[in-house]
Amino acid sequence: MALIGINASFARRPSTGIGQVTLNFLKELARRKTEHEFVLYLEEALPKDIILPKNFRQEVFLPIWKRDDLVRKIWWEKYMLPKKMEHDRCCDIFISLYQCPTIFPEKVKHLMVVHDLIPRIFPEYLNNARKKAYQDFSEGGIHHADKIIAVSSRTEKDLIQMLEIDPKKITAAYPDVDPIFKKEVSQKESAEVLKKYRLKPGYLYFGGGLDIRKNAEGLLQAYKSILERNKNEHFLEEIPKLVISGKMIPQMAPLITDVSKLVKEMNLSTHVRLLDLVPQKFLPALYKNACLFVYPSKYEGFGLPVLEAMNQGTPVIAGKTSSLPEVGKDGILYFDPEDTEDLMMVMKNAMLKDNLREAVGKRGKERAQDFSWEKFVDKILNILDN
Fold it and tell me: Which pLDDT does position 251 carry in this prediction?
């Protein structure tokens, strides 16, 4: 029997990809019958719907600096967490569910999940000293970890090529989506969500974040091109509306795409619906009622939104870079995210061919069955036991 500590801090941010992985990892782990004892280190207590067995306990603590920013994040992960863990009877093993600056004494076996190396690939994300410091500290944490779980083979390759991590330390393990995306959406649910957002079935949908690498601007350019060509070529009686969800934070530009501003500048206001942040409970119906889910991201460590759409049987169009072809395989239509003409042509072709959309949606749903939280947790527990 081992005492295993877990950094589950991101459980308080369920709208993020790392938050989803954290919560579903814990739920699956709590279902397991194991002799190990688990200590969950948190900045906020877990949601009440997560029922923990007797061999789990929560440790919630914060530094004096209470503001939720990078200063607190560095303080909590780099300094307080190691001290707290040692004070609470030093764990034999520790799992960090995301890449972070935490470093433990050699006697503690440290397994770290790494989701991506976005700041290495897009250095514009490191636009102030605090972000640069956090990235440097996190890379130090990755180097010191005994074992690393990469959420895709793409992330595994990035770790080897960019950080020169020993391949023997790394295991790739795919996460899954929240179970809500695996359930069939009823007609009643669809009707309620469509009414709420004033939508009709058959729209084009893009969601999953508006930071610049997600390439919302490229999507808007391709969509505008389709509208303009259709005026002359009349290949479709009506082009479906484009629906975009995501938190609008114009003051975060240039790291966040100001889609509202772009829509106005491109004269697309009558064709594009901006929904702001959509609660997760409404997302399955948004996917289900779209004729296409378009994901023009230039880089993903994994790509949860794509897998969410696939689970609902929605045909997906996605960039052919980073991890997305690895996740989707033949269950997705691909394009070059740097080429808006290519995106436009793939979108147009999919909109014109009902049989193609149906086949892609079916293949995507079949591919989605290859992912499970059971497999993800099994890989991590196997590493801990060896």
Answer: 65
Q: Which residues pair with 129 in a beta bridge?
A: none
Q: What is the DSSP string of 227-255?
A: HHHHHHH--SSSPPPEEE-S---GGGTTS
Instruction: Spell out the domain ranges in the chain.
Output: 3-176+372-385, 179-368
Question: What fold characterizes domain 179-368?
Answer: Rossmann fold (3.40.50)
CB 318 within 8 A of CB 299: no
Average pLDDT over residues 136-161: 97
- Among residues of the chain, what percentage have pLDDT more than 70? 99
Same fold, 3-176+372-385 and 179-368: yes
Q: What angle do CA 257, 119, 372 make, to 5 degrees?
A: 90
Per-chain mean pLDDT for the chain: 94
d(CA 358, CA 374): 29
pLDDT above 90 (res 133): yes
DSSP strands (E only) in the chain: 3-7, 37-42, 56-60, 93-96, 109-114, 147-150, 170-172, 203-206, 242-244, 272-274, 290-295, 316-319, 333-335
Cβ atoms of 104 and 15 within 8 Å: the answer is no
Topology (CATH) of 3-176+372-385: Rossmann fold (3.40.50)
- Is 66 in a helix, a strand, or coil? coil
pLDDT digits (tens, 9 = 90+) for 58-97: 999 999 988 889 999 999 999 999 999 888 776 889 999 9
Taking the C-alpha atoms of 197, 201, 203 and 205 in order, what is their torsion angle to the nearest 10 degrees? 60
